[in-house]
Amino acid sequence: MREGLMSRLHRFATEGGGLATIEYVIGAAIVLGTLAIGVSAWNNGLVARLQALVSQMQAVR
Description:
- The protein is mainly alpha-helical.
- It is built from two helices and no strands.
């Protein structure tokens, strides 16, 4: 069973067409995941700064 799986994986990795497609899919997933994490972190920081600003403005009243 394992030998069959390894030979299929080797065959898939050595084929040019399938490998290019899977590389694009994996690359796109990595880029989109990194972008989502970055936007989420930036948004969390922005929300914290806005909350601090609102608190300061309420304290001035």
